[in-house]
Amino acid sequence: MSTPRATKITPLSGFPEYLPEQRVVEQHFLDVIRSTFELHGFPSIETRSVEPVERLVGKGGDADKEIYGIHRLADAEGGSAGGGRESELGLHFDLTVPFARYVVENAGRLTFPFRRHQIQKVWRGERPQEGRYREFTQCDIDVVDTGELAPHFEAEMPLVMAEIFAKLPIPPMVIQVNNRMIPEGFYRGLGIEDVAGTLRIVDKLDKIGPDKVAALLVEAGRTAEQAQACLDLAAIRTPDTSFVERVRALGVEHPVLDEGLAALSAVIETGAAAAPGAMVADLKIARGLDYYTGTVYETQLIGYESWGSFCSGGRYDELASDGKNTYPGVGISIGLSRLLGLLLGKGLVGASRKSPSAVLVAVTDEGSRPASVAVATSLRARGIPCEVAPAAAKFGKQIRFAERRGIPYVWFPGASDDGGDQVKDIRSGDQVDAEAASWECPVEDLRPQVIALGE
Amino acid sequence: MSTPRATKITPLSGFPEYLPEQRVVEQHFLDVIRSTFELHGFPSIETRSVEPVERLVGKGGDADKEIYGIHRLADAEGGSAGGGRESELGLHFDLTVPFARYVVENAGRLTFPFRRHQIQKVWRGERPQEGRYREFTQCDIDVVDTGELAPHFEAEMPLVMAEIFAKLPIPPMVIQVNNRMIPEGFYRGLGIEDVAGTLRIVDKLDKIGPDKVAALLVEAGRTAEQAQACLDLAAIRTPDTSFVERVRALGVEHPVLDEGLAALSAVIETGAAAAPGAMVADLKIARGLDYYTGTVYETQLIGYESWGSFCSGGRYDELASDGKNTYPGVGISIGLSRLLGLLLGKGLVGASRKSPSAVLVAVTDEGSRPASVAVATSLRARGIPCEVAPAAAKFGKQIRFAERRGIPYVWFPGASDDGGDQVKDIRSGDQVDAEAASWECPVEDLRPQVIALGE
């Protein structure tokens, strides 16, 4: 083998890695997310990490400028590394585009309406910055149907997410909902023809503020009155359906606007009934990606609005098509890496220990290691995670081994006066007689606990 | 957005994807693997998917010829796509090399001996064939220490895997164990100097048979007698420590051979006591990767030996080093994708249903959808996975919706004579009165079951 290099190893910017105690937090989040998705009847699928580049390009708005292609090093040695070979492959930059491909590819073997969840890593070659990574984990749910998709699914998606947020040890989340038909109809009612261009400028509101948006709109050919009306619409945000009156008060009329207002009202009404406070109608939400056609979602962590959205999605009517059938869908996605980047970075959440072991079985001397292994086997048979001490060191050293890993109990085979075993809670120092076949581990000590911490 | 293409979508060779019912099987396997790793006190880590190419090259034997490099498409447009930019990155081809890097990078923040499990995808650009993929999932455990690693860990690793195999619905597995010091000492005792070259030829035994191996050995400069002795050693396979006598009977002596025989005896003795039948000493096992230095493991599924090893690993003393310290380790890895490729491909395992939902809540008419949603919310609050029917179709159609997904129960709000609810087991047709707040779902119906099927 090649000799190990002694060069200093440094992290790769944009490719975060966690220590074991941080990974405990991530796994807790993943477990809550998956189990809630399953409670709501979303089966899991995974798609391969790569797609032909031509399927990725043009689907992701800004994201497709940042696709990573892959190439076999063995090929690169022989000549051109970039293109020219069979079908060039790229790492997926989200889970929606591969899901749309999967649906079309497997349409004959799926049952519609088809719901699924998908939790995977995605890659984007953008400049790393706070909350933005080059490799990160997304947690998606989507429902697609053939031909038509019932509108009640648009209310269901954010409610699943609201249930997840309520179960996680995080500050409150608010899901902002809009319907693209509202700005579209409103702009048309104002006489604006370049709807997409106008939307793109208004979408910068949170980043650059209303004055600059107004200036950009005028620069792009809107009148000052049109620009002001666009800003007035974008300023509307209500926890209930009163947004309808406020839009009406702006005096703009268009059938597409009516349709959008009715659709958003239905979503907000269902949301307010099922999870009061979890959702608001927010008419400035547009979503950068081009494929959304109706309802759109973004989510803010209250107190951390500047971090942007942690959970986004929307309805798309034309993403998946095989030429004969189209598969309209609606989906929403948690940006788990971004959320954990904030929570772990600011110390807002932590784990009670970094080892899954609830018990360290001490070893009196190497000759009696099999007796310690037998204790561990007996505890595991009853679902108690444990490990055997690595060396028959002094008991004080074995206890420190447990302490450093946060393992709450140390088991001493044969430590009792009658030759039986004892177990010590190393937090309290209490040591009591115990049998491996019957000792009950307190349920709160069985697994690491993940808890909210003050900032 | 760009118009969806109507081109036919075909699978990418070497990048397998599962249907939801197959993914249920995969998730069951992943859950058993993870929970057993945790029962044995292995915390989880994940490493980023990429490493600098220079860290990958030279570490993986054959594998490093098949590394996938990644490149930003945005860069490719500007010129050279292959090399020349900062540090070129490649997708990892196993989890051991990135783990070794992680240990060195984080040594100051880890506690030694450090144990971890790691379940992730890896990539190799090799020619796809039966049981070989370009993207696949590995499930690893390793223990590393600073300076010295206690030998008892070499017995612990395969026992964790044996426990997993015993819990999975698969044919019996046998873990074959060897110690590289045995062939090394034996070859030296025979007067052979090129140990690595000899080992590489003997490693082809299963593929090309003893006659061709003997011919290759002679071609490489061994005498006919040396070649025969190498084959005699490789033919020894015993379920207990009787391999020692059989090696001794070959009459070769060397201190490294003695050391290897003692080390392997300790592993096999511990194994035979803890999990009779799970392990055999098999002196032909060598493992292709160059970094192993002591104990090595391979695993065969009985009846499917030609598929090769589903679970492999070994001890490595020099993989991780920061120049000052070395971190010897031992690890073992399940090739989950290869195992599932066989089991799913041959129909040896299956799931009882493809939906996580245990209950479909029927919808009488769209106006009463909120009542059906309330039933679902109540069931979920008690941990019963369920979904609400997508449309207020005729009940027969709603029942068929459940049937096609394998959902065992359909709930009918208000179906009872007294206006209460009823639930139907659609397998038996039994329909009984039930309340969402108290109905007990039989525990075997709560989640999809994964079971062995006859071939």
TrEMBL record, chains A, B:
GO molecular function, a single term: ATP binding
EC number of the protein: 6.1.1.21
Species, as recorded: Janibacter limosus
Gene3D superfamilies assigned to the protein according to its UniProt record, in alphabetical order: Anticodon-binding domain, Bira Bifunctional Protein, Domain 2
Gene Ontology cellular component annotations, sorted alphabetically: cytoplasm
PANTHER family documented for this protein: HISTIDINE--TRNA LIGASE, HISTIDYL-TRNA SYNTHETASE
Top-level class of the enzyme under EC nomenclature: ligase
Protein name: Histidine--tRNA ligase
GO biological process: histidyl-tRNA aminoacylation
Family from the record: Belongs to the class-II aminoacyl-tRNA synthetase family.
Protein's UniProt keywords contain Secreted: no
